[in-house]
Amino acid sequence: MSGPYLRTPGKGRSYDIFWKSVFFLGLFATIAALGWATNQVDYVWRWERIPDYFYFEKDIDITASMDGSISSIKKSGENALIIVTGEDNQSEQYEIPFSDLQVYEGDSIFVGDTLGIEKKWTMGIILEGLIVTLKVSAISIFFGIGLGLLTGLARISANPALRMTAITYIELIRGSPLLVQIFIWYFVLGTLINSLLSKFDISQVPPLWFGIASLAIFAGAYVAEIVRAGIQSVNRGQMEAARSLGMSNFNAMRHIIIPQAFRRILPPLAGQFISMIKDSSLLGVIAIRELTKATREAVSVSLQPFELWFLCAILYLILTFTFSMFVQYLEKRMVQR
Amino acid sequence: MIEVQNIYKTFFVTHEVQALSNVSHTVNQGEVVVVIGPSGSGKSTFLRCLNRLEFADSGHIYIDGVDILSPKTNINKIREEVGMVFQSFNLFPHKTVLENLTIAQTVVRNRSKSDATEKAMLLLKKVGIHDKAGTYPAQLSGGQQQRVAIARSLAMEPKILLFDEPTSALDPEMIGEVLDVMKAVAKEGMTMVVVTHEMGFAREVADEVLFMDHGMIIEKGTPEHFFTNPEEDRTKAFLSQIL
Ligand SMILES: Nc1ncnc2c1ncn2[C@@H]1O[C@H](COP(=O)(O)OP(=O)(O)OP(=O)(O)O)[C@@H](O)[C@H]1O
Ligand SMILES: [Mg+2]
Fold first, then answer.
1. B191-195/B2-12 β-pairing
2. What's the confidence (pLDDT) of residue A1?
3. Which atom of ligand 1 is nearest to the CA of B20?
4. CA torsion angle for B180, B184, B189, B193 (degrees, to 10)?
5. ipTM of the assembly?
6. Per residue in A251-265, pLDDT tens?
7. How wide is the angle at C-alpha A35 spanned by C-alphas A33 and A41, nearest 5°?
């Protein structure tokens, strides 16, 4: 979006340089103060451990599943083939990386004894949380748009049943806190739905979907108001021209009104979904291990709260920033056509 | 072709406005009717009742014998045959000039894209802007936009065209080009109802002129009648202002 915008008149170059320096000085002072404060309480920063929360080599114990003794260890490439022979001459074979072997030939073995360790690259808890947050957000945005569009159209419909349903939905959702709605979805509707399902022997709905439902339905109410405002902002002559050409209300909406409204809707819509990505952090309260809950769990075992909480915030920032860049790209493409 | 019998229309906003009261008129096929009258006299309301953009409160309106105020009438079918040209053009700004002309043809008339394009190019040539087919309406002058709007209506091959002050939003030097297009359409036998104060246009192509005031048709007659010996005092007063 270019064009003239409101700005106080410039006051010259040296004025600019001075106050920009003030800004950067302030920024550095804040960071320095934070560093000083953590130093005072002897906090040890260990940023080098952070990558482990994304992807790390996990040790997996390989244990014996029968009593007996190691009858042979043979090398095969990088691995060792271990044969365990039991009392009645039954035998079992295990393959373990040679370097992490913990037994010798002839050792007696009992069920559950560790024979060796296999190392395996595994996703860390923060990455897992990030993926859950992404997934929840993407699905909620998808349904939020659909629901919001339908509700927005119903809101301005001539049919009183549609209009009143839309108004009731919008006011109900916008009038109560999201956290309470999440609890209602999980503890009230979730319990109800899952109890009914189990009564009819159908498999249960996992909490994730109640979380998605609460976010999508919450966002849908706001999107509906954005859609309504967008549609009403299109000059009413557009509708009259389309209808005068014999188009039905539906076709006029679809080909003439909504495409024009969509362009104006896009910026507030993006804002709404950015809030929604951030609001997904509340889902931890119903046992969905999204980014915030994952961070809390990581903090409770690692004792590295400073790095992890900063990391968590930065990850949200990256998500929302990427999203808003994507929307800006869409917007530009539409203006250029 | 158009038969209007005793229609009334009242608006309620802050107070009651009687926009039309007991209006009756018949327009025959191929006739051009020009409607004049002071601001707020109900000209637009009258015109908009003819394609049901405004729903008359009482009375009857027959288009080609079909009662358009009957709830059984499919108004979209009627509007396919009754085109309208607006004072503010109302072109679709997100579509090219060509798409403005093809969209209703494909969506409403179910024409193929190539048939619609062919028809559109023919009409654009006729109104003299075929070289602008790929541009967007915002890049055209007012006169060009209004000509596109007329072509857009013609693309539906309507039997009747309604014009609501098609030249009042235009700079004076562009009025002529739009009126020329309208005259050409009239000469081809289109049935037209035109709200305008362009008396030169009325004199040249109108079969009948209606003078409206306070929601009523005060005087009807040929253009000649209005220029030479209007009867009503209000008509005389109005004409002395615009001539
Ligand atoms: N949608 C509406 N809501 C309320 N009042 C209206 C509406 N449309 C028209 N009116 C009123 O009805 C009366 C007739 O209006 P109309 O637009 O038909 O007049 P007009 O002769 O076309 O005037 P103009 O030359 O200014 O276009 C006016 O008093 C106007 O304020
Ligand atoms: Mg008018």
1. unpaired
2. 45
3. 14
4. -20
5. 0.94
6. 999 999 999 998 889
7. 105
What span, in angstroms and rounded, lies between the C-alpha atoms of A280 and A284? 8
Determine whether the shortest distance from the Cβ of B41 to ligand 1 is under 6 A. yes
- Exposure of B88 in the CB half-sphere (CA atoms within 13 A): 10
Q: Scan residues 237-276 of A and list those with Cβ closer than 8 Å to B.
A: 237-238, 240-248, 251, 255-256, 259-260, 263
The one-character DSSP state at A71 is: E
- With both helix axes pointing from N to C terminus, report the angle between A125-155 and A291-302 in degrees, rounded to the nearest 10: 160
Count other C-beta atoms under 10 Å from residue A333's C-beta: 9
Cβ(B14) – ligand 1 distance below 6 Å:
no
**Coil, helix or strand at residue A273:** helix
Of the candidates B168, B160, B137, the one whose C-alpha atom is nearest the C-alpha of residue A256 is: B137
Distance CA A267, CA B86 (A): 31
Per residue in B111-157, pLDDT (tens digit) is 999 999 999 999 999 999 989 999 999 999 999 999 999 999 999 99
| Strand-by-strand arrangement of the A108-109 sheet | A91-97, A79-85, A68-76, A108-109
How many whole angstroms separate alpha carbon B196 and alpha carbon A322? 55
Q: How far apart are CA B16 and CA B57, in angstroms?
A: 13
CA distance B107 to chain A (A): 7
Give B192: exposed, middle or buried? Use CB within 10 Å, 0-12, 13-18, 19+. buried
Q: Is the pLDDT of residue A2 over 60?
A: no
Per the structure block, which two tokens stand in for A188?
């009230």
Asked if A280 contacts A218 with a C-beta cutoff of 8 angstroms, the reply is: no
Q: Give how far Cα B238 sits from Cα of A136, A226, B47, Å.
A: 68, 47, 20
Instruction: Provide φ and ψ at A251, rounded to 5°.
Output: -65, -40
Report d(CA A63, CA A109) in Å as an integer.
10
Distance (Å) from the C-alpha of residue B98 to the closest C-alpha of chain A?
Answer: 15
Beta carbon pairs, A and B, within 8 Å: 62
| CA B115 – CA A290 distance, rounded (Å) | 55
**3-state class (DSSP) for residue B2:** strand
Contact B202, B186 (CB under 8 A): no
Q: Is the dihedral of CA A285, A286, A290, A295 positive or negative?
A: positive
The partner residues of B164 in beta bridges, in order of sequence, read B195
Strands A114-123, B160-164: pairing kind: unpaired
Q: What are the pLDDT digits (tens) for B153-209?
A: 999 999 999 999 999 999 999 999 999 999 999 999 999 999 999 999 999 999 999
Separation of alpha carbons A226 and A4, rounded Å: 25
Q: Are A113 and A63 a contacting pair, CB within 8 Å?
A: yes
- What is the spatial order of strands in the sheet that B66-67 belongs to? B16-27, B2-12, B58-63, B66-67
**Averaged confidence pLDDT in chain A:** 90
Instruction: Please report, for chain B, how many H helices and E strands are present, in that order.
Output: 9, 10
> What is the distance, to the nearest Å, from the Cα of residue B226 to the centroid of all Cα atoms in its chain?
21
**3-state class (DSSP) for residue A6:** coil
Nearest residue of B to residue A248 by CA position?
A: B76
Say yes or no to pLDDT of A334 above 80.
no
